[in-house]
Amino acid sequence: MDNRYGSLAAWVYDLDKPIGHSFGDIEFYGRQLEGCSGAILEPAVGNGRIYIPLLERGLRMVGFDASEEMLVRCRAHCASRKLTAVLSHQRFEDFHYPERFEAIIVPAGSFQLLDFEQAHVTLLRFHEHLKPGGRLLLDLDAADSLIEDKGGQRSWPVGESELLTLTASPPEVDYLAQRTHALLRYEHWIEGRLVLSELERFSLRWWGLQELTLLLQQSGFTHVRLYGDYSEQPPGRGCQMITVEARR
Questions:
Q1: Does the pTM exceed 0.90?
Q2: 28-37, pLDDT tens digit by residue?
Q3: What range(s) does the Methyltransferase domain occupy (predicted)?
């Protein structure tokens, strides 16, 4: 049930974060990847919010996701734009490609879906799948934004008589494992009657920057660099999103 992104979750994600909706990340990744001629991998590609704009810039994007429901939406968005999508159903821990990539990007904090052991295995696979000199770029939410989340309810109208709702519990904080766990209840309503409900357990891990730097180095990466809030500057006090860059 953890981080499954079922059919209602994928639908809500698509409404809340449509293709091209940017937090500054699309522009940032566009700048960082400008001039890349080789293939670029995006794990946890989701609905294609970032994948598709980068494809439209002419970059050679490849993606995978553990949620088939999210991939269905990503493929449909690519088809409607007449874009050739190279997408597959795989997981962080055991994905495989015969080719090696010029870059691997993990935007929007998706790396935090992994626990420590999964993250270590995944970083080794990232290293293995990069060309010599290839870059890894991944986003991390600031720890306080995860720990201090209060939960709440949101809704999205999807027609004159239909509504999608998301109710999130305040997260349980496991300080020893550096993880938060929240229950997410997705509901589909038609004319005021509940027709479908999904319950998912949403777990995220926060990272110390020195901790992650050491794990990257242990996994074979070098030249670790940090960016704050999708700028060219290192993260400072009050920074909400940190991007970590490392090279094979």
A1: yes
A2: 999 999 999 9
A3: 40-134
